[in-house]
Amino acid sequence: MPYKVSFISLGCAKNQVNCEQMMAAVQAEGFELLPSPDGADLAVINTCGFLAAACEEAIDNILELAALKHAGRLKKILVTGCMAQRYKEEILGELPEVDGILGTGSYGEIAAAARAVLEKGETPCRFGNIHTAEQGGPRILSTPPWYAYLRIAEGCDNHCAYCVIPSLRGKYRSRPMAELLDEAAELASAGVRELLVIAQDITRYGTDFDGTPCLAELLRELCKLDFHWIRLHYLYPDEITDELIRVIAQEPKILPYLDIPIQHCNNGILEAMNRRDTKENITSLFQTLREKIPGLVLRTSLISGLPGEGPEEFEELCEFLREMKIERAGVFPFSPEEGTKAAQMEHVDMEEAQRRAEIAVDVQSDIIDAYNESVLGEEREVLCEGFDAQAQMYVGRSYAESPDIDGRVYFTAETDPSPGEFVTVRFTGVMDGELTGERVE
Questions:
Q1: Of 318, 366, 398, 431, which sees the most CB atoms within 10 A?
Q2: Is residue 159 within 8 Å of residue 44, measured between CB atoms?
Q3: Residue 433, by phi and psi: left (phi above 0), alpha (psi -120 to 50) or beta?
C-alpha cells in the first residue's frame, strides 16, 4: 500500500507553486495524494512567514493537524515553507506534534524527508541554500484547470526596510527563458487558458543574467503560445521600461491589468523604507500607463502606519488614492517584523495602523463603486468559473479581476456556459460591490 500524503498550502501564489512541485515529487516516488489530511499517513503544511499574522494562521493550521494526529486520524506532520525557514527552532521546540521541517531551500527534498519520517521515524530538519535552490520541476496543478501560475524568478534584491522576504527566499534569481517557455507550453497543452506570470518582482526578470531586463522579450514569446489571457503580477515601478509598456499595450493576450505594489506615496516614507520610487515618478508612471494602455485597471498594495507616517502623511496617501483612481488596492496595517530595519523605527501602535487601514479601505471602496458604475452597459469578455447556487447566477472574472484577490462577476445566461469557457457579458448592475450582468447570446 502506498503512503497517503495530503498537502496544505498557505500564503501567496508563489508558495502554491512550490506546493504543486512537492505534490508532483512525492507522487513520482509512489505516494498517493489525498485531498484531506483526515486519514493520511502524512500531512505537509507549506507555510507563509511574511507577517506575524501569517505565522499565526500557520500555527492554527498546525494545531488543527495536531488534533487529528492525537485522534489517531493522521500519523505524521511535516512543516515546510517560509515560517519553517524563519522559525525552525521555535517550531521544533514549541510544537512537539511536528515530525520534521524543511526550509525554502529544500523543497526538492520532500520525498526523502517524507520517507525519513514514515519509514525511519526520524525528525528531518533540512535547510538547503536559499540562494541556489532549484526552481523548476514537474507540478501537479492545484488551481482550476483553466488557469495556472508561471513563476519566472525566485527571491528578491530590493531589501525594503519592512520586509523579511530576502532572508527567507534568498537573492533574486531569474529562471532560464527556455525552461520557462517549455513549462508554459506544457501548461497551454494541458488546457490552461489564463497564465498568471508571477515572481516577487517580475520587472527585474533577466537583470541577474547580464543586467538587461528581459520581461518584454519573455512576454512576446509567451504570447505565441495557446493562451487566451496572460496576467502580470508584481511589477515594481522603477523598472517598468518603455519597451515593456509597448509590449503590454500591443499584445492582445496581455491583459490591461497591472499589479504594481507602491506601499506608500510620501517621499520621506519611501526613502526610509528603502524604496527607490518617488511620488512624482509613481504619478508620472501611472499617468503614462493610463495613456498608453486603454482600459487599464491598476492594482497596488499599501501599508498604513509605516514609520514616519503621521496624520498628514496618511491623508496624503488617501488623497493620492483618490487622484490616481487606483481600481484595486490591498491595504495592510504596518507589522513591525522581527529582524527588519523598520521594526526598530518609531511608528504608531498597531491599533492606530489598523484604524488607518480601515479608512483607506473606505476610500478604496468609493473608487471601486465609481468604477463599477462607469462600466455599466459595457460588454466584456468573462471567464466563467461555475454556478453560484446561493446567488442563482453564474460567476466568473473579466480582465479586471484576478483570481482569489479581486471580486467576481455574477451573470445570468439562457445558454449554460461551462466552467473555463469565455463568454460575453453585458454589465447591468452591482451586488455587494461586485458587478452583475447577463450573457450576450
A1: 398
A2: no
A3: left
Question: What is the percentage of the chain residues whose pLDDT exceeds 90?
Answer: 96
pTM to 2 decimal places? 0.95
- What's the chain's length in residues? 441
Beta strands in 307-408 (DSSP E): 328-333, 379-388, 393-397
In degrees and rounded to multiples of 5, residue 101 shows phi and psi of -140, 145
- Residue carrying the nine cell digits 529562471: 175
pLDDT in tens, 57-112: 999 999 999 999 999 999 999 999 999 999 999 998 899 999 999 999 999 999 99
The alpha carbon of residue 216 and the mean position of all alpha carbons in its chain are separated, in whole angstroms, by: 21
Residue 374, C-beta contacts closer than 8 angstroms, at least 6 positions apart: none
> Which residues make Cβ contacts (< 8 Å) with residue 102, sequence separation at least 6?
78, 79, 80, 84, 109, 110, 113, 124, 126, 127
Residue 265 neighbours by CB under 8 Å, 6+ apart? 279, 282, 316, 317, 320
pLDDT digits (tens, 9 = 90+) for 189-225: 999 999 999 999 999 999 999 999 999 999 999 999 9
Q: Which amino acid is at 283?
A: T
Q: Is 227 helix (H, G, I), strand (E, B) or coil?
A: coil
Separation CA 235–CA 128 (nearest Å): 28
